Amino acid sequence: MSGNASPVVVLGAGIVGVCAASWLQREGYDVVVIDRQEPGEATSFGNAGCINGSSIVPVAMPGVLKNVPRWLLNPDGPLVVRWQYLPRLMPWLLRFIASSDPAKVDAQARALRALMESSLADYAPLVRDARAERFVHERGHLIAYTTDAGHASDDKAMRLRAQNGVVIDEITKAQLHDMEPDLAPGFIRARRIGETGHVSDPGQFTKQLAHAAVSRGARFVKADIRGVQTDGTRVTGVITNAGVQPASAVIVALGAWSVSIVRELGDRVLLDTERGYHIEVPGAQARPRVPTLWYEGKMFATPMDGRVRCAGTVELAGLNAPPDWSRTRLLERQLKQMYPAIADDIARAGEGALPRWLGFRPSTPDSLPVIGPSARFSNAIYAFGHGHVGLTAAASTGRVVARILAGQSSGIDLEPFSIGRFR
Ligand SMILES: Cc1cc2nc3c(=O)[nH]c(=O)nc-3n(C[C@H](O)[C@H](O)[C@H](O)COP(=O)(O)OP(=O)(O)OC[C@H]3O[C@@H](n4cnc5c(N)ncnc54)[C@H](O)[C@@H]3O)c2cc1C
Predict the structure, then answer these.
(1) N or C: which end of the chain has fewer CB within 10 A?
(2) Is the CB of 293 under 6 A from ligand 1?
(3) Tens of pLDDT along 379-400?
(4) 277 C-alpha to center of ligand 1: Å?
(5) Has residue 41 got a pLDDT over 70?
(6) Which is the closest atom of ligand 1 to the Cα of 383?
(7) In what residue span(s) does the FAD dependent oxidoreductase domain sit (predicted)?
(8) 196: Cβ–Cβ under 8 A, 6 or more apart, which residues?
């Protein structure tokens, strides 16, 4: 499918765009990837690193409405809404609340599981081709609790996982501290999910997959995407600050920045950003052995290459508000509570001098990404809106997108992911 025909142009070189490019290459397409940054430098740089096919529980669960006042009033909570952003957020928030209907939640979880069950398997050929095995660890992850009430309030989410085939092991306090000797004694029990994996440097991992694609003939263009050219029925090119890139098809993988292209293609979408933060402790001696979610604190501690990364929090404040670094101070306090001995590592690294980061989860109100063709242009395929699970779902999304373009069955029901749900 190379030769004189225009290439397939992937918009965005985050983990979703890079995986789409890699799968398209495997289907024989000539591929160009455009991004204003180097691959893997936006949201895909700083996540918690989990390839977690069990992460199928939508953010909007039944009863979510009663939490909204707390999110508005408690600036130190794990989820906050900035008042100034509330008017712009309102349509998204109303749909978010509507998505918490129990029947809808069941359907969303089913759809996410169908997409992500094969996440590690869908990465496998890409990782092999890129010789990126050293980044991928298949050791499962833990959800650790400091209270019985927390454990009980997580039951509903665990039932949803179990209904969808996730195997969950209950872990006693003694077992937990055996597995995780640096964890504070205040952690009284845990659940272990063994099917999952993690990536020990998400940014470098994305770059290595991108380099592998380039070494097999893909072209990477560093440019600012301004829009698309069409002939009325098909997209024919991508307009950038560096000129027009001809295209036989486009894959829209611009993460949280996808809205303007969607509108240009004549579709509607409710996409906002759940901003999240991380801090890192380089050279930490005290550390998790596997990615560990502190349920009550709603933050992940992940063992990364040469450092521990603590990632989490949700801040609904849009793409343009300045960072609120008090969120990372909260993460630092929580990390010390979780692994008391890490305080020494933090002191060695320099108090208040830890690497810190703000990223923009591309979030739809129903926690489902948008995957599939635009309503008007069958050669424009959407692949964005992966919220909390973009690293997990990227390879599977890439495989599905390549199948759609090749006119083959994707193997899953794509209706729940269609752009048409926002009409
Ligand atoms: C704190 C935190 C923890 C997380 N933990 C996990 C986890 O453990 N597991 C998991 O699966 N997911 C996790 N996620 C979510 C995951 O990181 C995202 O879903 C994923 O990175 C989205 O990838 P993407 O490729 O869609 O977007 P991005 O990585 O944001 O890529 C979009 C690309 O588009 C480019 N772009 C945008 N506009 C333009 C333009 N006009 N011109 C040119 N280029 C443009 C950007 O430069 C960027 O490179 C986490 C997120 C956060 C914030």
Answers:
(1) C
(2) no
(3) 999 999 999 999 999 999 999 9
(4) 13
(5) yes
(6) 26
(7) 8-403
(8) 50, 51, 52, 53, 54, 120, 138, 140, 141, 291
